[in-house]
Amino acid sequence: MKIGLIIVIALFASAFAAHFLLADPGYVGISFRGYLFEMSVPVLVLLTAALFGGLWLLKKVITAPRRIGEAAGRYRSARSGRKLTLGMIEVAEGNFARGERLLARAASTSDSPLFNYLQAARAAHLQNSDDRRDEWLRLAYQEIPEAANAVLLTQAEFQLDRGQHEQALATLRRLDENSKDHAHALALMGRLYFRLKDWSALRDILPRVKKHGHVKPETMDAWTVRVHREALDQAADGPALALAWKDIPKAYQSDVSLIEAYYKGLMRADLHDKAEKELAATLKSNWRGPLVRLFGLVQGVDASKQLKRAEGWLTNHSDDPDLLLTAARLCLRNELWGKARSYLETVISLRPSPEAYQEYGALLNQLGQTDAAADAYRDGLNMVAGSNLPALEHRP
Predict the structure, then answer these.
(1) pTM of the model
(2) For residue 41, is pLDDT > 90?
(3) What domains does the chain contain, in order, with CATH numbers?
């Protein structure tokens, strides 16, 4: 509509100009360096138009290769984009081989080849082709060096997924050298050390992970507790144990697994008297099942006094299976077989456990009731195995 209106206006203007020019074509004279050029006004107009038309055409000819190249580039880019989309669709639908081919073919003409290479690597990874996967990642690293961190992170994630722990560790250490305190790299490194049970290495990077890493608080808590529990378990004597406990942040010293590890360390170091006193004091303000059971394993100097203390707690915790098991164990130490049996049978009736059945079986053997002891051991094993085991044959 707009072009048509312009044409109509131009025709009217031309007709109007022609009317006046034909009536009086006019005269134009141009003198240049002694030469005189004479012509009518219509001729001058035509020459001027021809000059501008020639210049316009010359410009088009000169810029044609560039415009053709730009058009070809837009075509290739659009085609590459279509291949990228199709490749992503194929991978999402589980056609990994076809998706990989489409993504790879589009990489050379793509405006963002990094994405093509990374997705092609993912498709190869899903086909369990680690060699092709690593080749796509190598090309990405080589052609887009500024994306080195992204490539290394992707490679580490693939290696972790495949269980290639040594390779993943090497990749993450290389990334750590390139970019110190990279948040995601630190998170992956912590996850890897936890999986490898390399508690010393995990402990070393925990401060950096806490400061820079993107790790869920509950995961951070689990890692912190685990490395400190390992330090407590590895403490060889009382001074080393005390140092390991002092090294635990205050916020974690109320964790029951760490408290339990500390008292087990005292017993391992043959500091039973210290363990008995401190454990009894702890239970006054922190009545926890694992700690209650642990009190029955402490080899105090006065077993009778220790039993009396445990039975004193029964006044307020008469139906506590953990305390009843502890009392039973202390009765066994004091050779009070009948009372120990009563406590154990009560525990089994309230909350049966492999520990209770083991103590009960040992007591029945002590009393010469081997058939009943075999049944108790079998019941305890059933709880561990999760299925009913055949009755043990009694052989005199």
Answers:
(1) 0.70
(2) no
(3) 74-143 (1.25.40), 160-214 (no CATH), 216-270 (no CATH)
